[in-house]
Design goal:
The chain is mainly beta and 303 residues long. It is built from two helices and 18 strands. Bound molecules: 2-acetamido-2-deoxy-beta-D-glucopyranose (7 copies). One 2-acetamido-2-deoxy-beta-D-glucopyranose binds next to loops.
């Protein structure tokens, strides 16, 4: 369900070099002298460490606005004009030096991100410090710096590992079953469930450590190990119309867990085990199957 504005026409998009301040300048100029008269401009001027936008022409009419981009490794200085325009006398307006050396975009990390105040900043001169913080699921290691610095050679200092994975609570034990922890209980680790012989797993056979708000939690409810009844002989059919079967196995009350941001698209399934009948229910079909099950019980098939 994407918001409608996402599909807005691209017609409103302006070329990258056309900053709002520049647009304003252009508008003011158009208002001032709507009908410039004579003189065309020739070759555009050089601007240090910048490249002129590509235009397929050699002469430019009066009022023509020509934009420039900073070369790689340079950034626009805030407030400087990154364009020239053709004046009435056939000369280009005086170009401004608007590009300065800068570190590129800040390092991307798995465990952290730069603080919000740095998001709009793209000009990073030498010595510029950007402060990071930990991503959810991680905690800050305060003995290590979370800063990166733009060095004299305009590369970023190597970020340290300033966060560590947080841990989920000890999963403990499940009755009549086993929890396998092959890789610890840290953020994003999986644990696996199995049942002792003679027991059947009801629920999911694995879950993983995730964050929920500020807490670390196991992402799914733990399953149950339910005893498989030992009577394997075919049930004898009685005439007990409408009588309740007291020995009918209890059904789980919670049958389906809400879909979560599982890294692997595990199927949410519930296995209901009754003597001689194994039903794998999923989603809405569970209701239908429950009714079917009740009918079987009612007709005495399962007693
Ligand atoms: C940046 O521009 C200056 C002045 O034109 C020039 O001396 C310098 O070599 C340029 N730097 C790079 C990296 O191109
Ligand atoms: C400029 O001309 C070249 C070759 O004639 C063409 O490939 C290119 O698309 C043109 N660029 C623009 C912006 O019109
Ligand atoms: C924090 O960083 C120090 C220095 O690198 C390291 O020795 C220590 O193990 C880290 N602590 C944690 C909890 O990761
Ligand atoms: C990290 O940057 C902050 C803010 O600029 C500063 O107060 C702090 O001293 C820096 N820490 C280190 C270890 O450089
Ligand atoms: C930039 O300087 C740092 C520190 O002096 C050095 O470790 C790094 O290799 C340099 N990077 C390049 C691309 O020269
Ligand atoms: C255990 O975790 C480590 C580090 O997160 C990972 O490299 C490794 O593949 C994991 N092993 C298993 C069996 O999941
Ligand atoms: C866990 O359950 C999924 C589907 O519910 C199944 O594909 C997978 O084989 C099961 N894994 C084990 C170890 O039983």
């Amino acid at each position: 369900m994407r918001p409608a504005w996402r599909g807005a026409p691209a017609a409103l998009r302006l070329p990258g070099w056309l900053t709002p301040s520049l647009l304003l300048l252009l508008l003011l100029r158009l208002l001032w002298c709507p009908h410039a008269a004579r003189g065309d401009c020739g070759d555009p001027p050089d601007i240090p460490n910048a490249t002129v936008e590509t235009v397929n022409r050699t002469t430019f009419p009066v009022g023509f606005l020509l934009g420039y981009y900073c070369n790689k490794g340079f950034m626009k200085i805030f407030g400087k004009v990154n364009a020239v325009h053709c004046l009435e006398n056939g000369e280009w307006s005086k170009p401004e030096v608007f590009c300065q050396r800068s570190c590129g975009s800040t390092p991307r990390l798995i465990y952290g991100h730069k603080q919000d105040i740095y998001i709009p900043v793209s000009y990073h001169p030498a010595g510029f410090i950007v402060v990071y913080e930990c991503n959810p699921g991680y905690a800050r290691n305060h003995s290590v710096s979370a800063n990166v610095t733009c060095l004299q050679n305009y590369t970023w200092s190597k970020p340290e590992v300033f966060c560590y994975k947080r841990s989920c609570p000890d999963p403990g034990k499940i009755e009549n079953g086993h929890i396998s922890i092959p890789n610890g209980t840290l953020f994003a680790s999986f644990i696996y469930f199995s049942c002792n012989p003679g027991y059947k797993l009801v629920g999911l056979n694995s879950t993983y450590c995730y964050y929920k708000g500020n807490d670390m939690v196991w992402d799914d409810p733990f399953p149950e190990c339910q005893e498989i009844p030992t009577t394997t002989q075919k049930p004898t059919i009685t005439d007990a119309q409408g009588t309740k079967a007291p020995s009918a196995p209890r059904q789980p009350t919670t049958v389906d867990v809400p879909a979560t941001k599982s890294p692997s698209a595990r199927q949410k399934q519930t296995t209901v085990n009754v003597p001689g009948v194994t039903i794998i229910a999923s989603g809405h079909t569970f209701m239908t199957l429950t009714v079917l099950l009740m009918m079987l019980v009612a007709t005495g098939y399962l007693s």
